[in-house]
């Protein structure tokens, strides 16, 4: 009998010891993840409409600028972008819409707003649709400065002059991650994806001050001379994430690569056509992007995600009454991330308070879509976007592709 009691006591002590060890490790993961988050995204540098002084209002400030818009079935989005271009304080030399095989009224909408329409030639083997459209637009452009804009982008008054002025001062490649303007609740499930996109490019980490490891595809600015020198989109023709690859091409050519957030200058509304479009879009990008951001930054991002998910799991267990962590530890860990996410997401878009207070929901959405992305990019080796199935290329250096062009 005594031996049986002793066995129960030892067993119970062992269980409690394991629980205590698990709780300590879980809280350590939360704290490390929280610090990793600040290292990756402390402050998003941004352009302002006042930047550059009086030159921003000078009509001549954009007289050498070609705006290039690759568009495939973008009749819904183009009116917003083209109208915002018409409302700028200065007018660019030209606006070219490259119609990438659209089956809707993309071309008609572009002409209605006075844009020049360039019908894309058939897609060559080994090219993605966006890179092929951008390359054709650049070949046809007359300006000495090229501004590539996605069709879902919207420029605030003075925004175009601000991004061009910033690129002229820094040289090389400048890209802007637009401020995410959302209207429907499901769109806020993009919160974690948007955050990791900025973390990966590296503009917002401690001491970074806009220096970037890649580029943001929705808004890219460079000189026509530099673009052609590095091989342009031909150097990244088979890349799903042509923006990150293009940034590397410029950097490897010894040119500056910088980025900024678009709050007050450049906005976009991603995936307005429903949850299916959101899942398809992020599944196309996320797993591929994780292999292209550098191992240190990737590891820090993983630690951050694990920290947030650990805090989420402890809170869910506490609410269900099955957790072993103390109430104080649960709430401290959860609120640490809530404060951090509120600070981050305020800079990236109008996410509001529900994604912050219920952040386990957007993190769960991220996990589901990321595993779908892994299946598509690692196992199937192909993704689907805008009616096209896109095979993924074998990894090889972007500079080598530039030399082969």
The helix/strand series, from N terminus to C terminus, equals HEHEHEHEEHEEHEHHEEHHHHHEEH
Distance between the termini: 83 Å
* Rg calc: 24 Å
CATH class of the largest domain: Alpha Beta
Shape: elongated
The name of the CATH architecture of the largest domain is Alpha-Beta Complex
Oligomer: single chain
> How many domains, as an integer?
2
With helices defined by DSSP (H or I, 4 residues minimum), what is the helix count? 14
Can you put this structure into words, describing what you see?
This protein has 14 helices and twelve strands. The chain is α/β, with parallel strands linked by helices. 49% of the residues are buried. It folds into two domains: 22-43 and 293-391, no CATH class; 53-274, Alpha-Beta Complex (Spore Coat Polysaccharide Biosynthesis Protein SpsA, Chain A). Helix 2 links the parallel strand 1 and strand 2. Mean pLDDT is 84; it is low at 4-16, 50-57 and 396-405. The longest helix has 39 residues, at 2-40.
């Amino acid at each position: 009998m005594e031996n049986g009691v002793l066995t129960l006591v030892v067993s119970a002590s062992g269980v409690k010891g394991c629980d205590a060890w698990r709780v300590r490790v879980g809280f350590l993961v939360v704290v490390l993840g929280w610090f990793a988050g600040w290292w990756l995204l402390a402050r998003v540098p941004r352009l302002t409409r006042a930047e550059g002084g009086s030159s921003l209002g000078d009509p001549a400030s954009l007289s050498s600028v070609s705006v290039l818009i690759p568009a495939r079935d973008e009749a819904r989005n183009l009116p917003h972008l083209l109208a915002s271009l018409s409302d700028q304080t200065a007018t660019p030399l030209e606006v070219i819409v490259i119609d990438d095989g659209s089956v809707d009224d993309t071309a008609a909408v572009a002409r209605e707003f006075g844009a020049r329409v360039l019908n894309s030639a058939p897609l060559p083997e080994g090219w993605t649709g966006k890179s092929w459209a951008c390359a054709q637009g650049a070949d046809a452009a007359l300006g000495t400065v090229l501004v590539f804009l996605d069709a879902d982008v919207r420029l605030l008054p003075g925004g175009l002059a601000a991004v061009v002025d910033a690129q002229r001062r820094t040289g090389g490649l400048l890209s802007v991650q637009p401020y995410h303007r959302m209207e429907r609740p499901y769109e806020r499930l993009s919160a974690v994806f948007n955050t990791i996109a900025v973390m990966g490019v590296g503009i917002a980490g401690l001491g970074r001050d806009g220096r970037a490891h890649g580029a943001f595809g929705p808004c890219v600015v460079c000189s026509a001379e530099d673009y052609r020198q590095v091989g342009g989109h031909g150097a990244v023709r088979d890349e799903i994430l042509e923006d990150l690859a293009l940034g590397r091409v410029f950097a490897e050519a010894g040119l500056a690569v910088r980025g900024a957030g678009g709050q007050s200058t450049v906005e976009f509304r991603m995936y307005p056509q429903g949850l299916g479009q959101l899942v398809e879009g992020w599944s196309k990008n996320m797993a591929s992007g994780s292999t292209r951001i550098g191992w240190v930054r990737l590891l820090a991002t993983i630690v951050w995600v694990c920290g947030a998910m650990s805090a989420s799991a402890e809170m869910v267990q506490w609410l269900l009454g099955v957790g072993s962590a103390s109430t104080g530890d649960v709430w401290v860990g959860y609120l640490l991330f809530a404060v951090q996410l509120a600070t981050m997401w305020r800079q990236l878009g109008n996410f509001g308070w529900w994604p912050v207070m219920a952040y386990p929901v957007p993190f769960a959405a991220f996990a589901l879509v990321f595993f779908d992305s892994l299946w598509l990019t690692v196992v199937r080796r192909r993704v689907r976007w805008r009616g096209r199935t896109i095979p993924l290329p074998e990894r090889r250096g972007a500079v080598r592709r530039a030399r082969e062009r």
